[in-house]
Amino acid sequence: MNKVLKKCWAVLLFCVGTAGAVSGVASSDWPVALHVAETVAHARQASMLAVTRAGRRVVAVGAHGIVLLSDDQGKVWRQASKVPLDVTLTAVLFINEKEGWAVGHAGVVLHTQDGGENWTIQRSTPEQDRPLFAVHFFDPAHGVAAGLWSLLLTTSDGGQHWNERQLSAPPGGQRADLNLFGLFAGSGNSLYAAAEKGYVLHSEDMGNSWNYLATGYRGSFWAGTVLQDGALLVGGLRGALYRSSDAGQHWARIAIDSSASITGLARTGSDRGVLAVGQDGLMLRSEDDGASFRTSHRHDRLALNAVLPFAGFAAPLMSASGPVSMETKGGKESK
C-alpha cells in the first residue's frame, strides 16, 4: 500500500464502510480503472458518506458510485438512473432542485441537471492517488472542491473547468499538505474547510485565497457548520468538538459524554438546533447553538457518517450500512 493510501486509512475513520475502496488498491494498480456504476439490489445497504437536499428531494452518495434518491424525506430510497463512475463518492451539493455536483475518489467531479437522476463527468484524474472529500457551490457558476494533501479546486463556469489553488504552508510547516475533509459556508463569499492538525481554513473570496485558523486541537476535524448566531462549530477525531464565537480567533472545546469521532454536523432548522453524528452510533443534540449537547448512542452502535441539514431532530442519517432513522431505543443518553 502506498503512503497516500496509508494516510487515508489512518485519518478517514468515517470511511470504514468503504475500507476496500480506501485501502484495497496497491501502488501498481494506478491508474484506477473506471467503470459505470451498476444498479444493484443491495444499494440501500451500501455505505453512504454524504447527504443533501435537491429541493424537496433528498440525495445521498457513497460507495461504488451509488447515488440514492428519496422523494418522501428518507422513508423510501431508490438508486439513481445513471452514474458514469463506480468510485466512492464522498460529498454532494445542490444549488437548486435540479442542478448538483458530487465528488470522490480518483479526483472525480460529477454533475447533474435533473435532480440527481442522471450524472455526467466534469473531472476525473484516475492517474493520481488524490481523492476529493468536499464540494460547495455559491451559485450555479462558482464552486470549490477540496481533498487530499491540500488539494483545492475552484470553478467559475459551473464545473466545466477546474483550477487548482496553491495554499501557503500552515504556521510552522514547510509545505501545504493537510487533508481537507469538509467545506461549510459562511455569509456572502465566505467558506471554511475542516482540516487536519486542529486547523480550520477560511476564505473570504469564494475559495481563491485562504488563511489558517488554529483551534488549539492537534487532531483532525471532519465536519463543520456556521450556526444561527454566526458562531463556528467543528467536530472530528476522538469526540473533539470546538466552537468559536469570534470568527475563529478564539476557540473553546465543548464537552460531550463520548470519545467517538464526530463525522457529521448540521443545523436542524429550529432557531438554535444542531445535530452531530459519528462513530459508535454517536448522536449529539443541541438546542442552544452548540453551546452544550445531549449525548446518545444508537443501540446497534452503527457507524454514522452524515446528517441531512435543516431536517430537524428526526433527520435521516447516513451510515456504513446505508440510510437509517434516528432510532435510539436501548441506547444511552446523557447531558
**Protein structure class:** mainly beta
Instruction: Report the order of strands and helices.
Output: HHEEEEEEEEEEEEEEEEEEEEEEEEEEEE
Could you tell me the mean pLDDT? 89
What fraction, in percent, of the residue positions are helical? under 10%
Give me the side-by-side strand order of the main sheet: 21-22-23-24-28
For the secondary structure, the number of strands is: 28
Counting H and I runs of at least 4 residues, what is the number of helices?
Answer: 2
CATH superfamily heading: YVTN repeat-like/Quinoprotein amine dehydrogenase
CATH fold-level assignment: Methylamine Dehydrogenase, Chain H
CATH architecture: 7 Propeller
Give me the Rg, rounded.
18 Å
How much of the polypeptide forms β-strand, as a percent range? 35-45%
The best one-word shape is globular
User: Number of folding domains?
Assistant: 1
Distance between the termini: 42 Å
Largest sheet: 5 strands, antiparallel
Low-confidence stretches: 1-30, 328-335
Report the top-level CATH class.
Answer: Mainly Beta
Which SSEs are present, and which pair or pack?
Layout: H1 3-11, H2 19-23, E1 48-54, E2 57-62, E3 67-70, E4 78-79, E5 89-94, E6 100-104, E7 109-112, E8 120-123, E9 132-137, E10 143-147, E11 152-155, E12 163-164, E13 180-185, E14 191-195, E15 199-203, E16 211-214, E17 221-226, E18 232-236, E19 241-244, E20 252-253, E21 262-267, E22 274-278, E23 282-286, E24 294-297, E25 304-307, E26 317-319, E27 322-324, E28 333-334
Antiparallel strand pairs: 1-2, 2-3, 3-4, 5-6, 6-7, 7-8, 9-10, 10-11, 11-12, 13-14, 14-15, 15-16, 17-18, 18-19, 19-20, 21-22, 22-23, 23-24, 24-28, 25-26, 26-27
